[in-house]
Write a structure and sequence with these properties.
3 domains; alpha+beta; globular
């Protein structure tokens, strides 16, 4: 005679947590593309306010001489702080714990994981306003629809000496379908594990291409809004005194750039994420130290308003 319990086993917090983590990872797009080499620096559950020091790569210079010249190493680093924590919680009855994990997941865990993953992706996409490199199409800032838009992006990465491997492009839905239409004749094999990742579209221009509905659209400041003739002039400030160098070179030491002559009344002139270029100021390849031939772009990190 066989005997056993007729009571179903209850779902435990461990079972629920494992299922939630699995579904969360499956729903992430940008979250799964984050560089994770420093995860081991946060053992256990990272607490808000926890920090980790990230060392910047050491730069060396080459001396073309027989006599040895010592390179003086300056170790630099940045600090990463766990500043945001998010969760989804819900109440349930004890009887719900008698459900199978598949039933409980379908009813509670799956929709909760989807909205949490969407929040993580949206927060990561919102970090775009710290990036100063901007690429646009020949007709301006429009939905990319040609291969050359990707080509310009890869060119910029090459000029900035970015490694050719592990490059990623993430489109919003409009750009994704516009590019899909433009590249219908391009063969894009996507075998293996990558094809199973959420949002993965294929590999184009040596970059893995994904789609994320949380990619942001930037609204620029009103520095020329409603003005038929506006001017902005950038002066170099040395020791707090605006000057225009007669030699065409910047003063030594720390300099500030002052922008003035905005023809605006009580408007937000510059928004975080706006970018600008300066005539005659070019980007430099960090490896060769030579000009890339492209103007260096600068990004606004704090908004500015004027009145009067």
């Amino acid at each position: 005679m066989a005997s056993g319990s007729t009571h179903p086993s209850l779902l435990t917090p461990t079972i629920i947590a494992r299922e939630a983590l699995r579904l969360l990872k499956n729903n992430l797009v940008m979250g799964n593309l984050v560089y994770r080499a420093y995860e081991s620096e946060f053992p256990g559950s990272p607490k808000k306010g926890g920090t980790v020091t990230i060392r910047k790569p050491v730069k060396f210079s080459v001396t073309k001489a027989r006599t040895r010249a010592t390179s003086y190493i300056s170790e630099q680093s940045i600090t990463l702080t766990v500043a945001t924590q998010a969760h989804v919680s819900w109440s349930f009855n004890t009887v719900d714990l008698t459900l199978t994990i598949d039933e409980y997941s379908e009813r509670y865990i799956r929709p909760a994981s989807a909205v949490l993953a969407n929040t993580v992706d949206a927060d990561l996409c919102a970090l775009y306003d710290d990036v100063w490199n901007v690429i646009w199409d020949t007709t301006g800032f429009v939905t990319p629809s040609t291969f050359m838009t990707l080509g310009r992006a890869m060119q910029r990465l090459d000029e900035e000496a970015c490694p050719p491997e592990d490059r990623v492009v993430v489109f919003n839905p409009a750009a994704h379908w516009a590019m899909a239409n433009a590249l219908t004749q391009l063969y894009m094999p996507s075998p293996g594990e990558k094809a199973l990742r959420k949002g993965y579209l294929g590999t184009i221009a040596n970059a893995d291409v994904y789609m994320d509905q949380n990619i942001k659209s930037h609204t620029v400041g009103n520095f020329h809004y409603g003005d038929s003739a506006w001017t902005s002039t950038i002066l170099v400030c040395s020791s707090g005194v605006p000057t225009t160098p007669s030699t065409g070179t910047l003063p030594s030491g720390t300099c500030a750039l002052q922008m003035y002559k905005f023809c605006i009344t009580a408007r937000e002139v510059l928004k975080v994420g706006d970018w600008f270029e300066i005539g005659g100021v070019y980007a430099v390849n960090p490896m060769s130290g030579e000009s890339t031939g492209s103007r260096r772009q600068f990004v606004v990190t704090a908004g500015a308003s004027v009145s009067g």
